[in-house]
Amino acid sequence: MRRGFNPDDKPTSLDFEQQICAAWAYFVQGVDQSTIAALYGVNQGRIAEACKAIRDALEPAKEQK
Hints:
The chain is mainly alpha-helical.
């Protein structure tokens, strides 16, 4: 049996919980996006999208203070 990279097994997006964890790692822990992307097996653009979505979702809460 041959083992190796199967492009069909690679995830193309993150679920909601993964997006939150990725944004937390980036904003709070200071882990760079390329490292987070490698951990989740996605490209850096997906991590950037997740971080932006979480940041945008939390900004209205900051303005109300």
